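To assess whether the prediction recovers the assembly geometry, we first specified each molecular entity separately, as shown.
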Amino acid sequence: MLDFVFHNPTKIIFGKGKISKLGEEIVPYSRRILLVYGEGSIKRNGIYYQVVDILKESGIEYKELSGVKPNPRLDSVREGIKLCREHSLDMVLAVGGGSVIDCAKIIAAGFFYDGDPWDFFTRKAKIEKALPIGAVLTLAATGSEMNGNAVISNDETKAKKGVGSSHLLPKFSILDPLLTCTVPPLQTAAGVADIMSHVFEQYFSANEGAYLQDRIAESVLKTCIHYAPIALKEPENYEARANLMWASTIALNGILSTGKLTDWATHMIEHEVSALYDIAHGVGLAILIPYWMEYVLDEQTVGKFAAYAINVWGVTGNNEWEMAKEGIGKTRAFFKALGLPSRLNEVGIQREDLEIMAEKAVTDEELGRFKKLNRQDVLSILKNAF
Amino acid sequence: MLDFVFHNPTKIIFGKGKISKLGEEIVPYSRRILLVYGEGSIKRNGIYYQVVDILKESGIEYKELSGVKPNPRLDSVREGIKLCREHSLDMVLAVGGGSVIDCAKIIAAGFFYDGDPWDFFTRKAKIEKALPIGAVLTLAATGSEMNGNAVISNDETKAKKGVGSSHLLPKFSILDPLLTCTVPPLQTAAGVADIMSHVFEQYFSANEGAYLQDRIAESVLKTCIHYAPIALKEPENYEARANLMWASTIALNGILSTGKLTDWATHMIEHEVSALYDIAHGVGLAILIPYWMEYVLDEQTVGKFAAYAINVWGVTGNNEWEMAKEGIGKTRAFFKALGLPSRLNEVGIQREDLEIMAEKAVTDEELGRFKKLNRQDVLSILKNAF
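The predicted structure of the complete assembly is given in tokenized form:
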């Protein structure tokens, strides 16, 4: 087990109707907030009206930034920063999924930075400070509700990049599983693929000895495998929605990466796919994960894949290689059974763009730590997944 | 899954030699601290001298409160409060196991309270504020390093009681597994029993639907079962010590109790045993746990015990009752194999005191939620365990 620091002060308020706590959570920080949301689903399902009623009742003034897209754009971030400055807002409240929360985070950090917020992503600038951030989560997927990470897409350069800072940890996140009951099947499934991908990136680690963390990682995977089919069959099954929601948070709140070298190659590859084609992140991951697994399976990694197959999928047998392959096969079949696409060409990707993606994914350094991937490796994975 | 709030801002600094970070963690809070420690083991193994060197180098003045006992006494708390007030100290640093940390916590809270600190435990007073608390952990057991709980013994009334408050969460805890390599076998084993007992109190829950939490609980149990024998055989095995240390923290930092009604009957019973006889908490728990399990096993609870047997011990079979009993048997055999006593009479308890213990354990309300226990039930468990 490697040395680590774990420090996650985000307050989670979890349960039915917990949106009622919103006012009392905001007031210690602010009376003038920027309300950030997406493309209107929170108006259709009524969450928007609940939120603004609470803000009004609590005496909290607000300006709105709406229209934040999945794969949130830099333009929205810039617009949000402008609104905060123009109206002297001093807190950012995200109501939505990970994209909305990520956008809110960079608005909160960009507020204190004179240059362009894209500088945080090119490492030209470091996040030194941020406005307080709050979240009302409406989708179980990214874990952004309890971490300091954000991913933003830049339309001008067709780039999608991530940044992390403890300043971006939300002060609080309200997690009401009922709010996810109206999430459509494909998005529910893509969210589950996203959760599982976060676990994989940390579980398939280059170092040994983080036994406890591996068992907890398997717990999150088993929870996804158990409840995703139930949530698809019975969208209003509270137990399923609650377990998936808490799983999304635990998957990426820092617990699973304690004592570990993590991988993240699949995410880096997927970022290039969805930067060019604007497909849902979870869909891209669901396609790529099994091909990444097959590609990195070798003498060094087979033991870990066999353990994965045994502990997560209940695979039995004597031959490590066979069990490892069976585990990967079950992963692929699971995503397919959830109704997720399994090839890049199914989601409109053109073969001629694969080389550009590979080129952009691997710039200076090789990707991943579980197994290092160069540009040719990445291209092979993309071609296999095509 | 029940509604919950999870909020744990304690910073964990984990790894080899991390005591070197002590100065920089203290300085943001204080330059004048109370250093609290136990009965001298930190002098024998040299940790004490490392700590005071760092304090001096960092320009941190300190006064010492030493001699804090396992089952820490109210007298030590009072003495610590007096020292803080006399010397205008404004932070409390615990160097030791859970007893030392618990003592430090109540000193930190008692500093701001005019009455006697025992009032916190009799619920005559509420903890409204506390000095900042820091910890250097030397024993994997109680989880006090990352929670707001403290248990104190009152010699005058022969009572041992607990209290919890978010004000008691340490600002930071330094967890260096190397510091636990010199812990003697019986204390190592008792620490493991303590960790597992914390999991049991939360795992054997009266409510359903916290699937993820149950899988994580099983992860902590499997970690204890895997590494306790290794730590006993090879006291300097870093991987074993590291996994047990992080398991102790995860077992009681609030994650496992999210969405759950927890039990804690075994702890309430053990508190009365060790209040009268001053035996090690973990030893008392190791004795009582299997008898509690046997006693509460019934038509309602058999399913959960069977799941425990299957998921944690790998028990197989068709009959729920048989599997449940096998799981309980394996628990008992495991504690025995670790060298822990398995009967109260082995640790000097007198039969005539069992009634007093039962009487003190069950005052107004019945104990436990997984299965409610009245005074007669508790007496039966104590007699069975005698």
